[in-house]
Automatic annotation (TrEMBL):
SMART domains: LRR_SD22. It holds the Pfam family fn3. It comes from Dorea hominis. This is Leucine-rich repeat domain-containing protein. Residues 816-916 form the Fibronectin type-III domain. Residues 498-528 form a coiled coil. PANTHER family: IG(IMMUNOGLOBULIN) AND LRR(LEUCINE RICH REPEAT) DOMAINS, LEUCINE RICH REPEAT CONTAINING 53. It comes from the Bacteria. Keywords: Coiled coil, Leucine-rich repeat, Repeat. Gene3D superfamilies: AF1782-like, Designed single chain three-helix bundle, Immunoglobulins, Ribonuclease Inhibitor.
Amino acid sequence: MNVEEEDVFQPAPEDVIQDWMLNWVIRGVTLDQSYKKEDYKPITPERFEGLKQFTFSAGTHPEAYPETLDIYVHSLEGLQYGKDLYKIDLSYNKIKDLSPLSKLTNLGDLRFYMNELTTLKPLSGLVNLERLNCGHNTISDLTPLKKMSKLKYLAMESNNIKTLNGLEGCTSLQEVTLRNNNITDISALEGVTNIEKMLWLGDNKITDISALKNMTKLKELDLINNQVSDITPLANLRNLESLNLGNNKNISDITPLTELTKLTKGKLNLSGTKIETKKDLLFEVINVNRLIEKFNANTVELGDKTNVIAARKAYNKASEDAKSYINENRISVAEKNIKLLEEGKAVEPDSSLSKYDKYYEADKSTINIFVGNADRQPLKNVKFSVKKQGSDEVLSEISTDGNGIAEYTFPTAVKTLTYNISLNEESKFTGDKDAITVEVNEEGQIGKINGTEVDKPSINRTLQLNAGEVLCVNKQNLEKAIKKAETVKEAGHTEESYKALKNALAQANSVNENENATQEQIDAAEEKLINAIDGLEKGPDYKTLHIAFVDSKGVAIPGLKFTVGNSWTPGTTEIESDADGLAEYTTQGRSYNYYTIDMLESKKYEKVRIRLVEEQSKVTKIEVYYVKGEYGANSELIKSITVDDPADLSFFVEVAEKEKEKLDLKGLQTQLSIARGLKKADYTEESWNAFYPVFWEANEVRNNEDATQQQVDEARTKLEQAIAGLEKIVKPEPKPEPTPEVKKVSSVALKTTVYTYNGKVKRPTVVAKDDKKKVISSSNYKVKYASGCKNVGKYSVTVTFKNGYKGKYIKTFTIVPKGTQLKSLKAAKKSFKVTWARQKTQVSGYQLQYARNKSFKSSVKTSTISNNKTVSKTVTKLTAKKTYYVRVRTYKKVKVNGKTMKLYSGWSTVKKTTVK
């Protein structure tokens, strides 16, 4: 929506919307997007019928509009008639009062981000609200929300909130943003247990988080920059995937986090806590617990044996520190019960493990088929074919491993399907040879096996090879082990154990490629490879970087691309941050190497460079820079890490957003205004058809937030040329009618048009001249001055002619505020402090300017001080050893034709200083 200054005006008295900008908005959305003055019709209550939503946030880019136009909505008066409204987005305006909305009970989505609200009380009856965003206001009380049981999304960051009283009734909340308030008490959240997507409580003063203990659905929690020490309540939040505990300096125990098995390492921030160095230990524990949670020790089945063995191996390889956080009994009880099942006996539950029953979630997308002989001993290399019912196409072949387990994971589909899993080489066996039917829903979840509903997707088969029968050679398990071994990286393992794996892998590949290999050779190669994988020993990984890229709010940035170069190899390697903002890089492991990780150009983010030093195959130093200046000559160091521990190689990098180029749109805006005033009927069809596409393209450039200055300038030039190329239709000139001779007024002016406030009434003298440049006597006109003419403001003078002179002229003059003078200017390190004399009367505030040249012609910085009691300011982030020129003036906010504007005094004398 382009705001043309002439289309924003004082509404008619009978118009229900008296706010100039809101009137402009409602005119457009109720008149098929016509905002033009010539289409103006006073807005009546009936005009709101059927209006469901509207959006106006011009304040996001105030520089794009005429400086003389107040583009902000100030009042909602009149919206009480919008009974059908569902969504209102008036972010980035200057609204203080929401009262007109108090009875609009159909409202479901309200957005008043960055306004001037102090209370939500008028919204207390809007019980159908589902979304509310009032971030960046000065609201302190949330109790008006207590009846909003349908509210799902709440954003109230950067307000003055201290407690969350009122949210206890918001039982449907899914996403909550309460960052940057003064919150100390969150007890109101104790019964709000359905929050699932995110809860952001960062940058507050919270000490007690016990109210979160039942928020078991929550996936993302942000508590950065608080005063939390006890994180025990988080132990119940087992769906957490992202957790930010940064800068809670008294957190000292990782125990509550050890069973949060859905946590992602790249989405856990522990920096600034006493456990920040224990992140690797924590995930060593979590990785073992993830394996343990694949089975329930008290209800284990033979099909769980593979998972139980994997958990035991992982536990045995864990460090002693990690083992101290793991309940090993969950493995040993499962092992005991597997043995009982193999002996044909029932399992023996352990009551001490009953609390873990709720932790187990069966993988209902994967079927486990256990095959054993008559003595329940597992049979290996028994093959099955998977087909869709009614089809002969084999989707997959699966075979039992050394524990007698064959697995198949069903894919998602567009509808529920039935699969048949049939035994291969059926004639060689006796026993349970019937095909297995599996009903699977569209999400790949198993519902029934052989017509019976199941909780655990597993089934047992008893088979016996006939005398003398030998199964065909089967390499499936060997190939599975090879794939697993190929994913293992050298980094983080001891040299000896990794070398043993590489040797076993080479032998396994050789056997796999040998068409004449016997089953005995295949099984031996597989066993050796599995033993090598299990025998891998952890060693300190000083070569692999784990970098999490985040923005200023701690939100992950995916898709950042980097090139990596070093002393030995040019920068041909590329890495990219993933969906979680994570990027990894493993160095070459040389005796000495120097690496540069350079971010590729990004439209949105400032360039970052990471430098590494590698000595004796270890990264010993990391430096992170913002790249500034040509070729990075003026780069700024933002982080330096001396690597004393492998954990030091996992770190966050905050990437700054680029400042958007401030475009000069005045020239283009002028040409667009001219173009909009043109009428097709006045020009030839050919010239109009050449002009209009250029006009349309220029309008598109004007509305494009990503447009460059070059595109803007080119659009202006083309439009200017297109306007000049228009050819008017020649119409016959009408014959002029004779006009009676009158005395002519050539000019009317005020002798003085600008005064400085001194508390006295101003009455400027009128000077009128005729067409012969002679002064017209004051007896030939009447002068009427506006009321007041004393305080700072703009005033009108109406001159009405008589005695044969005709015409009525309105002239204006201005009374500007009294100026001020600089009292002192003191330099400091890359900064200075400036002090000026206070002006108490008819002054709203001050405007400070400083520049590097005394003429203030370029690179001028301006700062507005909105309180007239403030008489000093410290300016920082300056360039050392440079001279700055400083001046100050006063301003006063006044109303002119119903619009707020600023009137400025003259500038003070200039002072200069050289910063240190």
